[in-house]
Design brief:
By secondary structure, the protein is an alpha+beta fold. It contains 17 helices and 8 strands. The protein folds into 3 domains: 2-126, no CATH class; 158-254, SH3 type barrels, CATH 2.30.30; 262-402, Alpha-Beta Plaits (2-Layer Sandwich), CATH 3.30.70.100. The strands form 2 sheets. It has a 5-stranded antiparallel β-sheet. GO terms for molecular function: mechanosensitive monoatomic ion channel activity.
Amino acid sequence: MQLPLQHWLQTLGLTQYTDIIATLIMLTAMIFISLIIHLLLHKLLLPILKKQSEKSQQLWPKSLFKHRLFNRATWLLQGVLFQTLLHILFDPQSMLFVGLTTLCQLWVMLFSLLIAFSLLDVIQAVTARSEFAKQIPLRGIFQSIKLMMAILLVILMISLLLGKSPGTLLTGLGAMTAVLMLVFRDPILGLVAGIQLSANDMLKIGDWLDMPKYGADGAVIDINLTTVKVHNWDKTIVTIPAYALISDSFRNWRGMSESGGRRIKRSVNIDTTSIHFLSTEEIDQLGQAHLLSPYLVNKQQEISQWNAQRDNHNASLLNHRALTNIGTFRIWLESWLKTHPQIRQDMTLMVRQLAPSENGQPIEIYAFTNTVIWAEYEAIQSDIFDYLYAALPTFGLRVHQTPTGTDIRALMPSRPTE
């Protein structure tokens, strides 16, 4: 339409600068039409779509606006319409047509990439609460896809500006591989780490991660292309490089959470000087306990038969079998835990002796609670050991305790008062 306009201007008597005047008229018309289209799309269409999305009870219509999908689509449409107007209004042989067409193509490519980014963000937002998203670090995968798409777009843009094939540029980039590896080291390592974490089901959102090297002890709140964010129990947030989870070791407490039971593995140190054989009076007193009565009756019969067969009534005490207070205590504690309503009976449960040390004879409880909630677990464990410490004197046992300054001063002779 530019050439007919020039001829029309010449028929009006304009013999100079008709090409410039025609170009200005065409540009003015294009800008006016573009403004009209812009107002229609952004002031009329988008507000209507936004109101409809806000009325929807589903998440995805709101996500479309939150991640600017429709907004970017309108800008893409404007670029396409502008390019269409160029072909209608301008001479394809003019330099202005070539320059504006190149800018329109770059515009379309850029907003096509942004629309693809928005689509990925919408998919991530919609699937964020699904079990599939918890199993796979989608954010890291989507960021990897975005990075590759951005690199590809940059190559296409450069090839468009230079007027060369993208294959030629890719061939030239082979010599810059080392530089690219250095620049994109963290994203590449993060991408590989994210794939390995996902493929091996090593980590997902919500897992309890314990990694002392990086000061991480809390729940995983984000897994992206280069980092993993951990919300520690002390309310701090630790950021760990994604590739560190592959190169270093870490502890994932997911198995404990999924099992429904949390382990108690804790000892009480018995003063070895309080360990002795039970007397008849002590046996009678302990026999009143319901949990110990069957054990004591059976054990006494077994011991009496063993001693009677060897006729060691008048021999040394060392030739006899006898009940000990620490062994009876261990049996009672195990029986008591087996009747405890908050201890899992379908998991490992035992009370065992550990190797004695300068701190006495350790008696360890190894059991699992029926909850994995931290506060409830600590309350159950505390209740068990509160009762355990209070029950020890009944068996004639004492807890080992290192002497304090007060104990040492109590042994010193008192000074006479002047």
